[in-house]
Amino acid sequence: MDTDRVHAALPEPPSQKEEDNKGEEKIFGNIFAELESVDLPLGTTLRSIYDDQPNAHKRFMEKLDTRIRNHDREIEKMCNFHHQGFVDAITELLKVRADAEKLMGQVTDTNRRLQEAGKEVTAQTEEVIRCRIQQRNMATTVEKLQLCIPVLEMYSKLKEQLTSKRYYAALKTMEQLEKVYIPRVSQYRFCQIMAENLPKLREEIKDVSMSDLKDFLESIRKHSDKVGETAIRQAQQHRTFISTVAKQAGLDHYTKPVFSLNGRAHSHTPNGLLMDDGAGDEEDADDEILTAQDLVDFSPVYRCLHIYTVLGDRETFENYYRKQRKKQARLVLQPQANMHETVEGYRRYFNQIVGFFVVEDHVLHATQGLVTRAFTDELWNMALSKIIAVLRTHSSYCDDPDLVLELKNLIVIFADTLQGYGFPVSRLFDLLFEVRDQYNETLLKKWALVFREIFETDNYSPIPVETEEEYKVVVSRFPFHDAEIEKQSFPKKLPMSQSVPQIYSQVKEFIYASLKFSESLHRSSTEIDDMLRKSTNLLLTRTLSSCLQNLIKKPHIGLTELVQIIINTTHLEQACRYLEEFITNITNVSPETVHTTRLYGLSTFKDARHAAEGEIYTKLNQKIDEFIQLADYEWCMAESDGRASGYLMDLINFLRSTFQVFTHLPGKVAQTACMSACKHLSTSLMQMLLDSELKQISMGAIQQFNLDVMQCELFASSEPVPGFQGDTLQLAFIDLRQLLDLFMVWDWSTYLADYGQPNSKYLRVNPATALALLEKMKDTSKKNNIFSQFRKNDRDKQKLVETVVKQLRSLVNGMSS
């Protein structure tokens, strides 16, 4: 029984089928919950139904029908539960309907009466609303106008500034419009138009300012000549002032000026500013010359620079300005083709260059970076090279020393002016040394003409002095001192000719002219002294020496003129030490200074004197040759005329008169000329005897020739020129004398016996000469039977002649071998 009770209390375990049904119910319950949910998507749920086990769809439909029937039973239960309430509500609603219609009529009537009563109020309210809207609109308009009026005023101000060409202020106004005013009212159309016009106005301002800059560049190009002239005049005035002050203070230096564009000199202060040395000097205000600022208006370049700076395009402006100035520099540096013909050509050239760089210096200091020191230095170096090349070329064309001197003065003031503005000019002063050489060359050419004219107009005779005053005039022009002549009474003659004091004066004038070039070169006295001495040496050793040499070689200059030239050169040579003193007095440089150059006048005049002496010897010989050509010997004459030939006597008389003129020459010169003439005469007579065209000579011709030689010996023994010792002059004819004695005495045995002995009687007779003359006489004897008496008296004589001829030939052959 208990066992049965126990077994009855325990539930039976569910079967497998029941468990499956429960799981299926749970699954479908979830599915239905998802389907009944409005928010969840149905696609996934439906897919799960169909993706399950087979017959899942059928079971789902079955479950769905079951669920629908369950819901229908629940709805039916709910409707049954609320049906009585619904009926009661409908009944109650029908009761209220009549009251609602009555109330509706009352409300409608009340509304009608209210509408009629509020029509006037509505109209007034609408009017009030409209007025409030107008007031709000007006306030808004005023507010907007207050914002727009400043914009319009600024734009109007901009237009006025553009009209009055106040471009920099206009750019500032544009900037304010863009950054401050227009952004406040940018929504309005007129502001947009303004904003669109502003870039165009900026471009117009740039174009106008660039046009002004071009006008400025053209202006300074036109006025650079005047600006340069002004700056150079200031430099000249300053240099004159400094020179005057230096002389008064005993200073020997030159202070470089610093010039400004206001026409005054300035000095630098430690902060780099310029201090006006002439400040407060109102008395000179009326005398001030025009300044560069008076001639050139620099405002366009300042304005254009500011405009481009504001527009952020400063670099473009700087590049354009520098490029244009470089082009103008090249134009300024291009000289005119005929610049070298006049001083004005050079002056205009220098004025333009100075004006150009004065303007650049002003722009450099008046602007910040438009031009830099490096740019101006580059321009100056380029210009300096071009200037030096131009001056070197054009100065070479100058043949007028006055023009070259003017050119030098222009270069100096040009260099001083630009040096005052800080430009290096050392190369210009180096160029002046080349110009100095050119100046010296032109001086030498000029003085060559002067010397030539002096020599052509000289009468080559001693200077006659009639009175003491005339003597003092000559001595004042030439340092002549001779105690013997000073003791002579007037009238008297000075040994030199008129050309000597003239040449001496001209040499001094040359030194003065050369000194003019050294002025203002800022050179020491020693350098000036050296330059003067070198140029004077060139004058003496080249120009004067060449003129003297040409004078001496001229065919119309005779012996008398040559003698006077020798005398003149002697006195000029003695005057060289006075020229040394003259230069020393000018330069105050002692001649004992180590590097002092000496004058070479002594050698110049010595060379000229030697050339004149040689020309005297040559002309004497030529004159002797002319007389010799007049000789007309009858070489076959039987006996002599008993007197010397006429041509020879004329020649001797000429020599006597000529040597009398030589009394003023130095003794050695006269002696040498006399000895040279006698030797040449002796040689010419010997050549006449031995002439190859002369085939026959008779004994009579020999005797006549001997008479002529005797006259020559007598002339030599008469001492035509004093100073010869013994028979020195006669030795010039010793060769002829021994030869003629040999033939006159017919002393062949002695000649042949003593030949070669130092004490031979016929030592000067050459065997070849004797043989040639003997053969000429031998040929004559054959035709004229000149030896007939010898054959009659002594036939051995003929044999002796033959023997002598043979022996002479053997001697000649021995000499040749």
Automatic annotation (TrEMBL):
Domain of life according to the entry:
Eukaryota
Residue ranges of the Exocyst complex component EXOC6/Sec15 N-terminal domain?
Answer: 63-232
Q: Which Gene3D superfamilies match?
A: Dsl1p vesicle tethering complex, Tip20p subunit, domain D, Exocyst complex subunit Sec15 C-terminal domain, N-terminal subdomain
For this protein, the parts annotated as crossing the membrane are: none
Q: Show the InterPro entries listed in the entry.
A: EXOC6/Sec15, EXOC6/Sec15_C, EXOC6/Sec15_C_dom1, EXOC6_Sec15_N, EXOC6PINT-1/Sec15/Tip20_C_dom2
Q: Which GO terms describe its cellular component?
A: exocyst; plasma membrane
What is its biological role? Component of the exocyst complex involved in the docking of exocytic vesicles with fusion sites on the plasma membrane.
Report the protein name in the record.
Exocyst complex component
